[in-house]
Design a protein that fits this description.
two-stranded antiparallel ribbon, 9 helices
Length: 301
């Protein structure tokens, strides 16, 4: 890659998978071993079994960039508390997640019912407790939720971090790459990387559990900046005429709280909604669905 122009990278990966937040103690091979069976099952559900093998799949890995050097915690997580949730972006994103969890899960108390006069640390603590008791965040440690908030904030507000992460993903996309499948925060990274790789040969972008449509916090911070289109903004298309972009959102996926991305990126984009059960945001739950399998297959035939 020279500047923002794609010149062809030596690569045999026909499918590049881009992971989401919370993968800082994993790696390329481990994630490929986790994603490949689910991806293969999805292709089988779509009647496209055998289009690719595991050797055709690579992972655009960036998780280690969020792993502090020398950190030796057994779970690989920072010992964050509610007081570490910073004002501004992190608290705003927490409120969005909390509000969406309450909308989709009757067992979650909505933020509007909490005393707004509570001091900020106590309000944040209430939000984290509400999320940890939800079906979506079940069994997720409080410190992990805080760490996730910080990773999203770091990517979208810290330019050196953004550049490093995006470079990792862009370097995985080579001249043989035809499909990019991107999950969660990885969908934001993959979208920006493809926008920067002008002239790439990717035929199918499949985003799953994506936060791309969240206004203000995510959509309005994208690079390139969304353009004015009449009375609304429209995101830049991340490829040429050959690109098919499919976005899939789980009905109970709190991260993908804007399910339909067409108003933000245009009617060329195809949006679908899946039922992923209690694992609403899990990448494997998306990948095993026939809709996802068909979207991937379209870029391979």
């Amino acid at each position: 890659m020279i500047g923002s122009v794609w010149v062809g990278v030596s690569s045999v990966a026909r499918v590049v998978c881009v992971h989401g937040i919370g993968k800082q103690v994993q790696g390329e091979d481990r994630l490929r071993a986790e994603w490949w069976p689910a991806l293969s099952d999805g292709l089988r559900r779509a009647g496209a079994d055998g289009l690719v093998t595991e050797s055709d799949v690579a992972v655009g890995f960036y998780g280690d960039l969020f792993r502090p050097a020398g950190q030796m915690l057994s779970a690989g997580e920072l010992p964050f508390t509610a007081q570490d949730v910073e004002a501004g972006f992190e608290q705003d994103l927490l409120a969005e997640w909390w509000r969406e969890a309450a909308r989709t899960d009757p067992g979650v108390v909505p933020p509007d019912s909490v005393d707004t006069l509570l001091a900020t640390p106590r309000w944040v603590q209430s939000g984290l407790r509400a999320l940890s008791g939800s079906r979506f965040f079940a069994n997720v440690a409080l410190r992990a939720v805080v760490s996730d908030l910080k990773q999203v904030r770091a990517y979208l507000t810290d330019e050196p971090t953004r550049a490093q992460v995006r470079s990792r993903v862009a370097s995985a996309i080579g001249e043989e790459t035809r499909v990019v499948v991107a999950h969660s925060l990885g969908s934001v990274v993959a979208y920006e990387a493809l926008c920067a790789l002008k002239g790439h040969g990717v035929r199918a972008l499949v985003t799953i559990g994506s936060p791309l449509g969240i206004p203000n916090l995510v959509f309005d911070r994208l690079q390139p900046t969304p353009t004015e289109a009449g009375k609304k903004k429209l995101g830049v298309w991340p490829g040429g005429e050959q690109l098919i972009w499919t976005n899939l959102a789980g009905t109970g996926d709190v991260v993908a709280l804007v399910k339909d991305l067409r108003p933000a990126f245009g009617d060329r984009l195809r949006s679908g909604v899946l039922s992923n059960g209690t694992h609403a945001h899990d990448a494997a739950s998306y990948l095993t669905d026939g809709l996802c399998g068909r979207a991937i297959a379209e870029g391979l035939v």
